[in-house]
Task: inverse folding
């Protein structure tokens, strides 16, 4: 196998995803780590003001290492770092919960390298409740002993080298939220979800029975290193209106040597996983409190003192009326500082804009608001897309689930959000200020990417949550993601298509943003993706589509998948139902004037091989346009079935499939928005009816539709990889520095396995030979798409679900 040395960089977002927790080293002031939900663990470099990822050596099939659930440090050894991570494998969640296990990764050089040790229980860094903590701590006396509070299998004692592991069966609750090991080495405090039943399918969806149910007691203490536990005093649970599962859950804690502090949360109105949705996961947790405990001379814990901040703030909602303390928000992060006795800070977790950071200098007896939305406090946004003008003129701060004062400097404070991290300075003073500090953090989920054949945009990036970016400079963040004329962002685009003949015209499918400033559906650009107009949804075609359009116009609902004809006059819009693309959701739109945004839509008719009308069926199908013929579109359907339209998408007819190894491909599914089952189909730009298809274990195929009318057409193809090789994603780039991208053959890039070696590969001879472009240190976790550069030879793009949008170039 040939190898070529490549360098890799990010097209910088930065930030963009949920950071779930901080970890300062207690004695070394230069060590600060963060964990993210899906993007690995990062270490902060104060000199460069950059975050450095520690997990880019994780690949597609050990992507679970990029889902850290907890971090642990050794007070005596600053070089020690332990990470517990894990996620579900691809496929059925319920089956994954039974079989998938976590990993303990131990580093003795601050994350430069790790030893991985399998764990016997399920771990998921993107689980509901992932914003709780600390979950993984060291016994301060017996420093070779660690404790881990797992989300689904109770409390564990683990040796510092990871070689021994013991479940502490004296705690009879499996859903634990945090663990605290007191300075005496014997006292342990554990927060739980207050759920006694074993894990089962009931956890997946809230039911009416759940709504009427109270959690059990959820805070416990042991005075004998976990041999026995007893209840810690806490507020009495009560049924709360509109809660899918009422009752207090301890979320986070802090200890200052005098007092032990706990924040409490309750599951709110919406929760797809009610047992564990007590953190920020639904954006509507409520009924929060902040409690303070002390210890007597014998080390016994006291009754609680309720120190919940009650400063009146109009969040836009009213407190709930079950009792006078059921706020419509909760409290998450809480922190103290050993260098400033009495200093305490906590923050809200709210469904409203901005959240509140409180500061106290008297152990929580009184509170001052340090930051609220854009109204109180001084906050600035260095990253452009985070600025208020692109977020409905409100603060984008949300999911503020961890908040830490630097233990070495009481005037520095950090907090997490759902879009990166923020740093505050002069925290104890009146001139305190806050600013995003996310350079180097690239943990967004990138779903697709495209290399325009001309124009100012170098790459179109289709991304979860943030929608999309049109990068004109690969090394600089974009000013904003895909947005309307007022700068209001669209979120989570699913795909885009552009014309090879009129490449300035781009169409994309987008979700409307959380605040309702934009609505989902089709968005159209006439300047390569730099600005966008939304196309009105065509109500009135039929009742099913009207129902889908109503849903799509709600915040954060998938729109579907779209294909654009070369003359830009025809589009085929596959209206999604969740993540599925059914035949019954396909419509076609036509306009006579390419400068107009007015399309006339009608329901597409679809016929199977026997000419039966299956237009209203739930056959999964994904549609692409021909790159030269404006009246021709193609469909790839579940079971590796092929369809063709030669009337601008008005009707599709199934055709014969005569590809190599055809029977082995019939179990593949194509009717999903995202690239399902690690497969990807790419049309060859500049050619009619030619596609490259990465079909997972079947390998890489080149497919051809054989004629221009559906009556005599068939799909034929050949496998470009040898038997045993696998291809998961495919992209096409310019073949050489002197090639014409549209006219000539293409450089082929795949994410796959060649000769039993996983990586990124390039072929300049249509798959006859392959060159490896990466090494073991550059695997980039979860991969969602790959694309070659259409103008710069050798460059290719990797749309990662873990570490952002990467581009690679030969050294």
Result:
């Amino acid at each position: 196998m040939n190898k070529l040395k490549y360098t890799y960089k990010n097209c910088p977002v930065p930030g963009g995803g949920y950071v779930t927790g901080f970890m300062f080293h207690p004695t070394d002031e230069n060590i600060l780590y963060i964990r993210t939900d899906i993007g690995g663990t990062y270490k902060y470099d104060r000199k460069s003001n950059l975050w450095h990822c520690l997990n880019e050596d994780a690949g597609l099939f050990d992507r679970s290492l990029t889902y850290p659930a907890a971090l642990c440090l050794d007070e005596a050894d600053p070089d020690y770092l332990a990470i517990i991570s894990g996620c579900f494998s691809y496929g059925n969640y319920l089956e994954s919960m039974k079989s998938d296990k976590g990993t303990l990764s131990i580093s003795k050089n601050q994350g430069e390298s790790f030893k991985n040790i399998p764990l016997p229980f399920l771990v998921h860094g993107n689980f509901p409740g992932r914003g709780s903590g600390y979950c993984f701590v060291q016994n301060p006396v017996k420093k070779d002993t660690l404790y881990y509070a797992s989300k689904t299998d109770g409390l564990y004692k683990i040796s510092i080298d990871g070689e021994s592991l013991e479940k502490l069966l004296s705690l009879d609750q499996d859903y634990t939220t945090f663990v605290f090991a007191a300075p005496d080495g014997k006292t342990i405090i554990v927060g739980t979800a207050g759920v006694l039943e074993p894990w089962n399918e009931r956890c997946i969806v809230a039911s009416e029975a759940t709504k009427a149910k109270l959690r059990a007691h959820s805070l416990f203490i042991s005075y004998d290193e976990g041999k026995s536990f007893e209840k810690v005093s806490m507020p009495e649970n009560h049924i709360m209106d509109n809660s899918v599962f009422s009752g207090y859950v301890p979320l986070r804690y802090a200890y200052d040597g005098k007092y032990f502090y706990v924040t409490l949360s309750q599951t709110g109105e919406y929760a797809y996983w009610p047992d564990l949705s007590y953190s920020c996961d639904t954006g509507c947790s409520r009924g929060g409190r902040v409690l303070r405990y002390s210890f007597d001379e014998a080390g016994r814990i006291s009754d609680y003192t309720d120190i919940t901040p009650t400063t009146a703030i109009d969040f836009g909602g009213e407190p709930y009326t079950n009792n006078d303390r059921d706020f419509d928000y909760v409290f998450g992060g809480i922190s103290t500082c050993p260098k400033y006795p009495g200093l305490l800070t906590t923050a809200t977790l709210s469904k409203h804009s901005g959240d509140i950071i409180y500061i106290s200098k008297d152990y929580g007896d009184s509170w001052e608001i340090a930051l609220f939305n854009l109204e109180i406090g001084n906050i600035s946004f260095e990253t452009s897309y985070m600025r208020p003008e692109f977020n409905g003129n409100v603060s984008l701060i949300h999911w503020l689930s961890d908040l830490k004062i630097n233990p070495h400097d009481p005037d520095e404070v950090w907090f997490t959000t759902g879009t990166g991290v923020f740093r505050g300075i002069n925290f104890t003073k009146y001139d305190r200020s806050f600013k995003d500090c996310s350079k180097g953090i690239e943990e967004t989920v990138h779903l697709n990417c495209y290399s325009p054949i001309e124009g100012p945009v170098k790459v179109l990036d289709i991304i979860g949550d943030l929608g999309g970016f049109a990068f004109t400079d690969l090394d600089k963040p974009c000013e904003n993601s895909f947005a309307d004329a007022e700068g209001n962002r669209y979120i989570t685009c699913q795909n885009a298509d552009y014309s090879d003949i009129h490449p300035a015209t781009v169409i994309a499918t987008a979700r409307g943003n959380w605040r309702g400033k934009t609505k989902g559906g089709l968005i159209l650009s006439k300047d390569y993706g730099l600005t966008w107009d939304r196309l009105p949804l065509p109500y009135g075609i039929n009742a099913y589509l009207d129902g889908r359009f109503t849903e799509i116009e709600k915040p954060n609902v998938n729109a579907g998948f779209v294909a654009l004809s070369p003359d830009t006059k025809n589009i085929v819009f596959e209206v999604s139902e969740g993540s599925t693309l059914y035949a019954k959701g396909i419509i076609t739109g036509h306009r006579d004037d390419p400068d107009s945004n007015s399309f006339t839509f009608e329901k597409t008719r679809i016929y199977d091989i026997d000419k039966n009308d299956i237009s209203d069926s739930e056959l999964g199908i994904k549609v692409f346009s021909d790159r030269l013929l404006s009246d021709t579109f193609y469909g790839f359907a579940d079971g590796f079935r092929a369809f063709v339209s030669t009337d601008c998408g008005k009707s599709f007819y199934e055709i014969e499939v005569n590809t190599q190894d055809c029977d082995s491909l019939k179990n593949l599914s194509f009717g999903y928005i995202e690239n399902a089952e690690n497969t990807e189909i790419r049309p060859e730009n500049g050619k009619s009816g030619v596609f490259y298809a990465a079909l997972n274990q079947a390998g890489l195929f080149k497919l051809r539709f054989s004629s221009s009318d559906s009556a005599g057409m068939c799909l034929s193809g050949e496998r470009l990889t040898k038997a045993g090789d696998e291809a998961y994603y495919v992209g096409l780039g310019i073949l050489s520095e002197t090639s014409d991208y549209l006219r000539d053959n293409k450089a082929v890039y795949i994410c796959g396995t060649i000769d039993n070696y996983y990586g990124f590969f390039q072929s300049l001879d249509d798959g006859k030979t392959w060159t490896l472009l990466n090494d073991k240190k550059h695997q980039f976790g979860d991969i969602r798409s790959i694309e070659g550069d259409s103008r710069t030879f050798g460059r290719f793009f990797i749309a990662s679900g873990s570490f952002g949008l990467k581009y690679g170039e030969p050294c």
Summary: The two ends are 18 Å apart (CA to CA). The CA atoms of residues 758 and 800 lie 15 Å apart. Residues 317-323 have pLDDT under 50 and may be disordered.
